[in-house]
């Protein structure tokens, strides 16, 4: 049985889903305590779930087997979920080499990967080519955030370069805190401090000492790299999965949450939108709206803006002025000065249609993007691009393009989502051809 700690916006919904599949929910927050075993309040966990910064999904960190099982469960239960393994483990320690200096810090060559070290982390400036030991502090697809303040985490305790003894704030019993404080002082050696995790509560002293000894045995690896000039990993961390919950997943999670506590439809979408109404408030002609065209690998995502032509709670029509030269993707038709695009976004739709026009209003081509169900927020439109598209040039039948690009996301999505993308593309091409034939 996998054990997991859940935190953040999606915790209750995920708890309902995971309990159904016999996962053990440990160290629950107050809302989940009635649905968990009291003995699990201080139990250790194999994986942990926290909100992403944008709250559009979660980051799952833990043992590889549990993270993989969590991913497969989401693929089985949620219609459009995206799960991307991070390029490095959280907590991994590297011998890095300073590559570039930036305004807010340094790019650190980790050996096949670049990390970003914020300037406030440092007591002195670094030089290009200088070797520095760093640890992955925050997960990102492009450049993970690293720190020079190292720590080694176990299930019960953490060794930290911050000297002294720390105790989880979840442990409130005065006698237990005193016991852990005394033991921690005896365990502090070689300039490393001890932090007792929540799961250390009332653990046998021998188990706690054994955990500290196990962590201390890893310390020599920090000095084991054969060449200070060659970047590379010194100690592995925990596997991390970056999860996106598109529109369909949020609606499904609403229903799972409702199994435990009363939940209104659209709950998770409204919470992501900071409590505002999900329908666009920028509904007057001329207002600007943000369009978040998200790629499964989000470092490739595109953000556009357009001018609202018309809007309702379930649909928004946007006009964009085309800038720059080149050709329209998929259509291979040249872009020209004065061109513009009109796009209709429907909430919950698995696609949207864009019509490109010349300056004089003549239609240049139609482009249908296949995507996860569209979400319309108060200030933006958001969806995940599923790579495959449908295009139609004037006087020609519609055709499906970029189907081979589905291979780019095959490891990030479920097989049924790939089939859904293909089915939607086929339906859109058929519909577009039928509309064309129906013209007088």
Secondary structure blueprint with pairings:
Elements: E1 3-6, H1 11-20, E2 24-25, E3 47-51, E4 57-62, H2 64-77, E5 82-85, E6 93-102, E7 105-109, E8 114-118, E9 131-138, E10 145-147, E11 151-153, E12 157-160, E13 165-167, H3 174-187, E14 193-196, H4 205-216, E15 232-235, E16 239-244, H5 247-258, H6 267-272, E17 288-294, E18 302-312, E19 315-321, E20 340-346, E21 351-357, E22 363-371, E23 375-376, E24 380-392, E25 399-401, H7 415-437
Parallel strand pairs: 1-2, 1-3, 13-14, 17-24
Antiparallel strand pairs: 3-4, 4-16, 5-16, 6-7, 6-9, 6-15, 7-8, 9-10, 11-12, 12-14, 17-18, 18-19, 19-20, 20-21, 21-22, 22-24, 23-24, 24-25
Helix pairs in contact: 1-5
List keywords for this structure.
440 residues; alpha+beta; OB fold (Dihydrolipoamide Acetyltransferase, E2P); FomD barrel-like fold; six-stranded mixed sheet; 25 strands
């Amino acid at each position: 049985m996998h054990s997991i700690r859940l935190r953040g916006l999606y915790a209750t919904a995920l708890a309902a889903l995971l309990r159904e599949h016999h996962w053990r929910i440990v160290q629950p927050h107050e809302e989940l305590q009635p649905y968990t075993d009291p003995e699990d309040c201080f139990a250790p966990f194999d994986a942990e779930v926290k909100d992403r910064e944008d709250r559009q999904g979660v980051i799952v960190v833990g043992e590889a087997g549990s993270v993989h099982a969590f991913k497969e469960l989401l693929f089985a239960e949620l219609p459009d979920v995206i799960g991307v393994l991070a390029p490095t483990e959280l907590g991994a320690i590297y011998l890095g080499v300073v590559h570039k200096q930036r305004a807010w810090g340094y790019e650190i060559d980790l050996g096949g990967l670049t990390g970003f070290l914020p300037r406030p982390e440092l007591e002195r400036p670094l030089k290009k080519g200088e070797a520095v030991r760093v640890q992955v502090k925050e997960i990102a697809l492009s450049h993970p955030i690293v720190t020079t303040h190292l720590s080694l985490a176990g299930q019960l305790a953490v060794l930290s370069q911050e000297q002294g003894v720390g105790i989880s704030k979840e442990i409130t019993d005065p006698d237990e805190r005193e016991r852990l404080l005394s033991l921690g002082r005896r365990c502090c050696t070689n300039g490393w401090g001890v932090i007792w995790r929540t799961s250390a509560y009332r653990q046998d002293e021998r188990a706690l000492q054994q955990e500290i000894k196990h962590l201390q045995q890893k310390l020599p690896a920090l000095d084991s790299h054969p060449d200070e000039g060659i970047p590379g990993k010194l100690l592995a961390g925990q596997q991390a999965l970056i999860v996106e919950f598109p529109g369909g997943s949020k609606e499904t999670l609403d229903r799972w949450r409702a199994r435990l506590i009363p939940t209104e439809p659209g709950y998770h979408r409204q919470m992501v939108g900071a409590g505002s109404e999900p329908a666009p408030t920028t509904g007057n002609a001329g207002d600007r709206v943000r369009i978040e065209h998200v790629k499964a690998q989000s470092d490739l995502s595109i953000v556009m803006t357009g001018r609202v032509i018309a809007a309702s709670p379930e649909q928004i029509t946007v006009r964009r002025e085309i800038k720059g030269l080149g050709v329209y993707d998929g259509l291979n038709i040249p872009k020209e000065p004065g061109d513009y695009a009109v796009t209709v976004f429907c909430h919950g739709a698995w696609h949207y249609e864009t019509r490109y026009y010349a300056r004089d209003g003549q239609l240049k081509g139609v482009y249908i993007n296949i995507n996860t169900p569209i979400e319309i927020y108060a200030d933006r439109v958001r969806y995940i691009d599923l790579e495959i598209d449908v295009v139609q040039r004037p006087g020609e039948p519609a055709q499906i393009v970029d189907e081979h690009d589905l291979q780019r996301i095959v490891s990030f999505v479920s097989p049924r989502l790939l089939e859904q993308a293909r089915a939607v593309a086929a339906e859109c091409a058929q519909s577009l051809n039928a509309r064309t034939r129906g013209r007088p």
